[in-house]
Amino acid sequence: HEHTSDCADPECTDTSHSHSHDHKTQTTSADQLGITSFVYRASTPFNSQRLMALLNRWPIPIKDSLDFGLVMGLGEDDVDDAVENKAFVGVLRSKGFCWMAPTKWSNSAGNDVWRHDTAMYWSHAGKHFGITSAGKWWGCLTKEQIKPYFANNVKEYDRIMAEDWVSEEWGDRRQELVFIGSKLDEAEIRAALDACLCTADEMEVYRAQVRNILEASFSSEMGGPSLFDVGGMDHIDQ
């Protein structure tokens, strides 16, 4: 659950987040190399297939923990429209948390419903790129359920509510990615990532599927048949 902010120094290898830097030296080095950074934020999940298509064409030789099998579900037009790897030229480091939409919501084998509740950690440095599980979003719980975890650290609870809790509907589920590099084209990078976000129509499907899961879970707890057993929203999966 503890999703802390990342250091914006591209040469930093300390993951403790308790360190400091000589800002005068850091600024001079950054100026000489033309290093800049920005944070990409969004409160909508990525369409997992479009995101994988984008990353598949990103010119990074070593990609770990990426499910490029998801790209197979896209048509050629979808891939061409969604992907512009030239936007990422100059990116030296990128890291943060991302929210990826499930591609198969049914309870059959191979479903990835877990994506709805799982925060994914995006980590890229030089030739290496990976996206791995970082635990559950706090948004899986109600605010009242979260409070006991911070009984001895109320300030952190308040920080999460003020900074990370982006909506009452989805809690802290969000995109928060730091990009660091030389001569970054921020507008192009933002446009490429925005093209991977779920559309309004896709979000309507997302909401319907979440309602279906919650209702199915409630029905199961009450001893009745699961909505998945009587069709539910399975027809949405292609």
Report the span from N to C terminus: 32 Å
Q: What oligomeric state do the depicted chains represent? A: single chain
Apparent shape = globular
Strand order of the largest sheet: 1-8-4-6-7-3
Could you give the count of β-strands?
8
Order of helices and strands: HEEHEHEEEEHHEHH
Q: How many helical stretches?
A: 7
Biggest pleated sheet: 6 strands, mixed
Q: Using the CA coordinates, give the radius of gyration.
A: 20 Å
Helix content: 25-40%
- What do the pLDDT scores average to? 80
Percentage of residues in DSSP E strands? 15-25%
- Secondary structure class reads alpha/beta
Explain how this protein is built.
The structure is a single chain. The strands form 2 sheets. The chain has a 6-stranded mixed sheet with strand order 1-8-4-6-7-3. A two-stranded parallel ribbon has the order 2-5. A hairpin with a 2-residue loop joins strand 6 and strand 7. It is of the alpha/beta class. 31% of the residues lie in helices and 20% in strands.
